[in-house]
Design a protein that fits this description.
The complex is a heterodimer of chains A (135) and B (381).
Chain A (H helix, E strand, L loop, with lengths): L1 E10 L15 H21 L2 E6 L6 E3 L8 E3 L8 E10 L2 H12 L14 E4 L10
Antiparallel strand pairs in A: 1-5, 1-6, 2-5, 3-4
Chain B lengths: L2 H17 L4 H18 L8 H24 L19 H9 L6 H12 L4 H7 L4 H14 L11 H14 L7 H15 L3 H15 L1 H4 L19 H15 L6 H14 L8 H15 L2 H15 L1 H8 L9 H11 L3 H13 L4 H19 L1
Helix pairs in contact in B: 1-2, 1-3, 1-4, 2-3, 4-5, 5-7, 5-8, 6-7, 8-9, 8-10, 9-10, 10-12, 10-13, 12-13, 13-14, 14-15, 15-16, 15-17, 16-17, 17-18, 18-19
The chains are: A alpha+beta (135), B mainly alpha (381).
């Protein structure tokens, strides 16, 4: 088994095919989207591949250590920063192909007009602990 | 086996051990171990005297722990293993535990965790699940909390207001894991109210009961939020409402108004309306005025502006909102609501979408996005 992070971006990923913002959908389309996401997570729990999922607020800030005895430097939020992560899902699957398949399904969640969003999701393998047997 | 009975006995058993001379931290650990043993062995043969059983087993666990400690420290000197003939437990022990676990030297998160374990009798694992943190993290939080209060004398007079705030925090956390924290907060507040003579504790209890009564109507099956005005009121729990109103009336009759009583009065007025349109908003505004006088809280100002919008119309509501700090959480959502009522749909849709972006949790975000979508759809015709 290998763990993968599925990253969803508010900004920074290439534009989705069906990129109408959610507040411009109909309430029924929003409902269908939520249902699709809930079903997806429930199905992964059922197959024993679900690990975690979290959503992040778009509000955030950059912080930097600024030396002993001085308060940390904080900046932002940077409106001009390209990348902004919206949330993640962690899955634990047998193969890379399986991870690709699941990411594809998640990207097909319905959006405006009930059509798939075709949203770009970022798929990142976890660096795991070293195996016990190495030779 | 009755898990609730076990948990109800927890603070009293800790009290007995402390009276016999055990320090609080070790006594609390010993009782927790005894509870775990009870959960394992009672289903096969429950004892005739559950409390006596717990005291005996917990005391043995305490002695084991102390012996291990002593032999670590000094293998030459054996400590006296028998309990010193300390004073018998008193009815106040449980109250003292409430005070100790909500001691002002503790952070709110620590006080909540310690209260749930030592007074509520929950296991570290259950508390960790309820707060969505790893069990090891919660175990550390609890043991640090116990070290913080190690020097506090058990009999030290406590402050009811700090205990009330801790219980209010537990209640607001609601229902996340396999433990129903709202129900647990109500149980503990009932216990606190039965031991004290304090109208604000009763106000807090009434507030919890009245809010808890609405829980079945507050969310749909998919977890989405149903606003108060749209809730199916036939699903409100009428016996909880009746209990809450009775507790509140008894508290108000003593004529020492406080924050929790005023909040409960507002909840009671909502509970009293058979349909949303029949809500007595004029009285609700009156209670918000009282609450504002008592607390000076900007959040109260915000809620008051929404109530004014219902009582005197959206223009008056927006005027009241104009005096509120726009940086407050939910300010934008309140503004969107009042603009929609005032007929300014374009502004309302835009504000709802803005509010969704800054929503503090997912159900609220979804709810606000849906509101924006609903109005946008109407505007498109």
């Amino acid at each position: 088994m290998a763990k993968y992070l599925l990253l969803k971006h508010y900004r920074g990923a290439p534009e989705a095919v069906n990129c109408v913002p959610m507040d411009q959908w109909t309430p029924e389309e929003i409902q269908d989207h939520m249902q699709y996401m809930a079903d997806f997570a429930a199905r992964l729990e059922g197959t024993g591949e679900w690990v975690d999922g979290q959503a992040l607020s778009p509000e955030g800030t950059f912080v930097r250590y600024d030396g002993e005895g001085r308060p940390p430097v904080t900046d932002g939020p940077f409106a001009e920063t390209k990348d902004l992560i919206a949330g993640w899902m962690v899955i634990d699957v047998d193969t890379y192909d399986r991870a690709l398949t699941l990411a594809g399904e998640l990207s097909a969640a319905p959006g405006a007009g009930g059509k798939p969003i075709h949203e770009w999701l970022e798929l990142r393998p976890f660096l795991s602990a070293p195996p016990t047997v190495t030779e | 086996m009755d898990e609730l009975l076990l948990r109800e006995l927890t603070p009293a058993v800790i009290g007995v051990l402390v009276r016999r001379g055990a320090d609080f931290a070790t006594a609390e650990d010993a009782v927790q171990e005894a509870l775990i043993q009870a959960a394992r062995t009672w289903p096969d043969g429950p004892p005739a005297d559950p409390k006596g059983w717990l005291v005996t087993v917990a005391w043995r666990k305490f002695l084991d722990a102390r012996r291990a400690e002593v032999s670590r420290r000094d293998r030459e000197q054996r400590a006296e293993a028998e309990p010193p003939p300390g004073p018998a437990e008193t009815a106040d022990d449980t109250l003292q535990l409430f005070f100790l676990c909500a001691h002002p030297s503790l952070t709110p998160a620590s006080a909540v965790a310690l209260t749930l374990r030592a007074v509520g009798g929950l296991t570290t694992r259950q508390i960790a699940q309820a707060y969505l943190v790893p069990e090891a993290t919660m175990a550390q939080r609890i043991s640090r909390a116990k070290r913080t209060v190690a020097e506090v004398r058990f009999e030290e007079p406590g402050d009811l207001a700090t205990v009330q705030r801790v219980l209010y925090l537990v209640f607001n956390e609601g229902y996340t894991g396999d433990v129903d924290l709202a129900a647990e907060a109500i149980r503990l507040t009932q216990q606190l109210a039965s031991m004290t003579d304090d109208e604000e504790t009763e106000g807090l209890l009434a507030l919890m009961l009245l809010h808890h009564a609405r829980r079945p109507a507050r969310t749909r099956r998919d977890g989405s939020l149903v606003p108060l005005a749209e809730q199916d009121r036939s699903r409100w729990n009428t016996s909880l409402i009746a209990e809450g109103v009775a507790v509140l009336q008894a508290a108000l009759a003593r004529d020492r108004l406080g924050e929790f009583q005023a909040q409960a009065a507002i909840a009671a007025l909502h509970a009293d309306a058979p349909r949303a349109e029949e809500t007595d908003w004029v009285q609700i505004v009156g209670w918000y005025d009282e609450l504002l006088r008592l607390t000076g809280s900007p959040v109260v100002q915000l809620n008051r502006a929404v109530a004014v919008g219902e009582a005197d119309g959206p223009a008056a509501g927006l005027a009241a909102l104009a005096t509120v700090d726009p940086g407050l959480p939910r300010y934008t959502a309140a503004s969107a609501y009042l603009h929609e009522k005032a007929g300014d749909l374009g502004t309302a849709a835009r504000l709802y979408a803005d509010a969704a972006r800054s929503a503090p949790n997912l159900p609220e975000r979804h709810h606000l996005t849906r509101q924006a979508a609903r109005i946008s759809q109407a505007l498109r015709g």
